[in-house]
Amino acid sequence: MKFILGNDGTLAINSEFVKTLYIEQEDGAVVSVIAECVEYPDEKGNPIYDYHATLATFDGKDADENFSAASKYLAELVDKLNGGSNK
User: Fold this and answer.
1) What is the pTM assigned to this prediction?
2) Strand order in 47-58's β-sheet?
3) Which of 15, 34, 65, 87 is placed for a possible disulfide with 2 were both Cys, Cβ 3.0 to 4.6 Å?
């Protein structure tokens, strides 16, 4: 079992419940890495996405640099969750 810590340190997510990880560009130059999590199935057994958790926020003045840093963070996170096979 692996956990991912949210960017403010108040949320830890069991990686088994993460459905999607993605990068979101907000207003201006702010870029965030978001986890969409499965909380529970509905009456038909379909997953319900109960919350989105911000894992990291990059808010420097340059949007391209923020996106690049978010991409690197996401790639490293996925690598760690997959056992760290990529070097």
Assistant:
1) 0.76
2) 18-25, 31-41, 47-58
3) 15
